[in-house]
Every structure is written in C-alpha cells, then in structure tokens.
Specification:
By secondary structure, this protein is of the alpha+beta class. The protein folds into two domains: 5-204, no CATH class; 260-429, Glucose Permease (Domain IIA), CATH 2.70.70.10. It has helices spanning 5-27, 32-64, 70-134, 138-143, 148-221, 225-251, 287-291, and strands at residues 279-281, 304-307, 313-315, 320-327, 339-345, 349-359, 366-367, 372-376, 386-393, 397-403, 413-419, 424-425. A hairpin with a 3-residue loop joins strand 5 and strand 6 (349-359). The longest helix has 74 residues, at 148-221. The N and C termini lie far apart (75 Å).
Length: 431
C-alpha cells in the first residue's frame, strides 16, 4: 500500500520536531546528567553540615546545664558562633542547591516547550490535510483518472492520518500537563529560594550580634569571674523590680474578656514555634517559679520556655498579623523580654515570642503559619538561650508604654505587651 503524500508530510513534521528537541538537549551548557550529579554533590554537603550542626547543638545543650560562669558563657558564645557559621554555610549550600534545581527545571521547561511547538505544528498540518481530503468527493477522484484501488488507498491513508492525529493530540495534552507541573514546581522552588535568602540575611545578623555580645561581656567584666557574678546579681534585682512593676500595672487593667470568642481548647489550634521541641519550663506555678517567687512576683510563669540555641529559627504558630515588635533591652537591659514579637491571629488568640537574638518581621506584616518571625537568643532577662512563648486572649493584651520606677532604670519608658492577668492562657491547651 502506498503512503499518501499528505501523511508523508506529517511524518516529516514530526521528525523535524524531534530534531529540534535533540538539538536543544545537545546545545545546553550542562547536560541533565551533569546537573543531577552537581545536585547530589550539593545534597551530600548539606547532610554533612547538618551532622556538624547537630554536634554543636549537643555540646551547647551540655554546657547549658552547667552553672553560670564567665568561662562557660564565653565558651558558649564561642560554640554558638561556630554553630551559626555552620548554619550560614548550610543555608548557602541550600541556596546553591535550589539554584541548581531551578536550572534543571528551566531545561526541562525549555525542552518541553520546543517539543510542544513541533507537536502543535504537526497537529495543524494533519488537520489541514484531513480537511482537504474530506472535501474531495469520490466522483472527483474517479473522474480525474483515479481508480477504485487508489481511492481505497487514499481512504486507508486518511484513516491512518486521523489515528496519528489522535495520538498527536494525546501526546500534546500530556506535554502541556507536564509543562504546567514543571512551571508550578519551579515557582515553588523560587519561593523557597527567596525564603532561604531572607534566612541567610537573618543568620548573618545573629552572628554579628553574637560577636558584639562577647565583646560587651569581656569589656564589662574585664574578664574577671567576680565581676561577672556581680553582674548576674544586678540583673536579677533589675528583673525582680520590673516584674513587680508589671504585675502592679496589669492588675489594674481589668479588661473584659469574652470566653466565647476563644477557640475550643485542643491539640493543633496552634503549631509549635520550633521544629525540635523541648520544654524547659511550663506555664503557671511551676517548681522553678514556686521556688523563686521573687522572679515572677508570685504569679507564676506566664508562658512556656523552649530550649533553643542562639540562631534557631522561630516560626509563627498560626497565620496572622504582626501586632508589634520591640526590644526592652533598649530601655533597661536584662529586665524583661529583650527582643520580642507579638502576632495577632484571627481566632481570638495572640502569641508572643521573646528573648530573640534577631527580629525578622515588622509591625503590620502578615505572616503565614510556619513563617520565620525571628531567631532565638538570650536577650532580656534570660539565664541561657531559649524561647519564651506566651499565648494571650487577644481581647486582653495591649502593646503599651510603661514607665520604669526601678532605681536602675528610673524614668525610662518600656514598650512591650501587657495583659490583664485573665488574658494569659496556657499554651499547652492549644498546641
């Protein structure tokens, strides 16, 4: 059976499309195999860095259990600096890996687009040919000198052409679906890349703060243990005076709180603000707060403390709006929360993240669940790096300016969240 010229033409179109695809693949600066090898190499670097960081975390946790001393503090700062440096290297490796993944996807998208164009042209030519054959009547074919055999050959050829057209259309649909998937994946990876770049900037700020803190401690203590211990004693006094001021102020607020606007207590209303959770102090009248009533003015602990070495990512427990940020150390160092972020959620709750080393958001910013709001530290009154996490009934919490009456900071103005005592809620009721 002879193949109609029209069908031969369509097959030639497909061959041209295939040629363009092969040419595009061979013209790449890097082959897919080379890109994949580089991605695997980068992934190995990431895994190795994660192992090193985990070892630093282990050493820091061990140091954190020892008595506070100048030597331990300096050693902790040194280890922290090494860990943050590795954190930065890890983020840089992840950025490089993400760039490679995006390059790989760009190549896939380019190749698929080339094939789609060739396939689309083949479909168009097939449609035009079928239309021409369908419009030629049997009588015209016979009168133009054709015979019955050649006519049936043409009919079979047309049917073959239609079958090939259906196949082309099916392949084209698959190609377009794959292209859309690749584009969506690429967009996701670009968003992840943007987050990593912000992360890198934050980690570099944390490293700068670590260096400044070490220099400040050495300057203030003159590298003498006695001076350091005297400094700790002074910090406790300042904090105790501030806590009493805050309690007196909050007891006068008397803000009405409607319990019906609060979400039902239960697991999952809020997400943990850390990837790895270890509670070091619970809410309310904990053993520590009972043994040290002067630290919390006898009212117990108003949140929970979570172990977190300096530079650990702190994430929003739920989508919401950043109601405010601040740093109480600017008013009176070591008295209160240090660097803090307050996020208001749409479910009647607000969450506080305190003792941060760096704040990564701004007032009025909308944040998503799991978005980084800052990095853990030990600013404010803190016996070691950790995250203080508090949950409020939104109706009962305000960001206000509070004048200090304590002798060490008299006349200065704090800006921080204050709340009616009834507004402090146990975070574990919602996590």
């Amino acid at each position: 059976m002879r193949i109609p010229a029209a069908l031969q033409y369509v097959f030639s179109i497909l061959l041209v499309g295939l040629f363009f695809l092969v040419f595009t693949l061979s013209a790449r600066a890097e082959t897919p195999e080379e890109l994949r090898a580089r991605i695997e190499e980068r992934n190995k670097q990431i895994r190795d860095l994660e192992v090193e960081i985990a070892e630093f975390e282990k050493q820091l946790n061990s140091l954190g259990k020892e008595k506070q001393s100048l030597q331990n503090t300096i050693k902790t700062l040194d280890l922290t600096r090494k860990k943050i440096t590795k954190d930065i290297s890890l983020t840089q490796s992840r950025i490089a890996g993400k760039d490679l993944e995006i390059s790989e996807l760009k190549g896939d998208i380019s190749d698929t687009s080339t094939l789609i164009r060739a396939q689309t042209e083949g479909v168009r030519e097939s449609l035009r040919t079928i239309n021409e054959l369908d419009e030629e009547p049997v009588a015209t074919t016979m009168l133009s000198g054709g015979n019955l055999s050649s006519f049936f050959d043409d009919v079979v050829g047309t049917m073959t052409l239609k079958a090939e057209l259906e196949k082309q259309i099916g392949e084209l649909k698959k190609l377009k679906s794959g292209l859309e998937t690749s584009k969506n994946v690429a967009e996701t990876k670009r968003a992840e890349l943007a987050v990593l770049k912000r992360d890198l900037a934050g980690q570099q700020k944390v490293l700068d703060a670590n260096r400044a803190q070490q220099q400040q401690i050495l300057k203030e203590t003159q590298n003498k243990e006695a001076n350091y211990q005297a400094q700790l004693t002074e910090k406790r006094k300042i904090h105790e005076a501030f806590e009493q001021e805050l309690l007196d102020y909050e007891n006068q607020l008397k803000i009405a709180i409607d319990p019906s606007v609060l979400p039902r207590q239960g697991k999952g209303v809020l997400a943990w603000p850390l990837d790895n959770v270890r509670i070091t102090q619970y809410f309310g009248n904990t053993p520590f707060s009972t043994a040290n009533p002067q630290v919390y003015s006898g009212r117990g602990h108003n949140g929970i403390d979570l172990s977190a070495s300096v530079g650990t990512r702190i994430k929003a427990s739920r989508s919401g709006m950043v109601k405010g940020t601040g740093d109480t150390d600017l008013t009176c160092r070591s008295a209160s929360y240090g660097k803090w972020v307050l996020v208001e959620h749409g479910n009647g709750l607000s969450t506080l993240y305190a003792h941060l080393s760096y704040i990564g958001v701004t007032t009025g910013q909308q944040v998503s669940l799991g978005e980084v709001v800052g990095y853990s530290g030990n600013t404010g009154y803190s016996t070691g790096p950790h995250l203080h996490f508090a949950v409020f009934a939104t109706q009962g919490v305000r960001i206000q300016q509070l004048p200090s009456k304590a002798l060490a900071c008299r006349g200065r103005i704090y800006t921080l969240p204050v709340a009616d005592p009834k507004a402090y809620l146990n975070p574990l009721s919602y996590l």
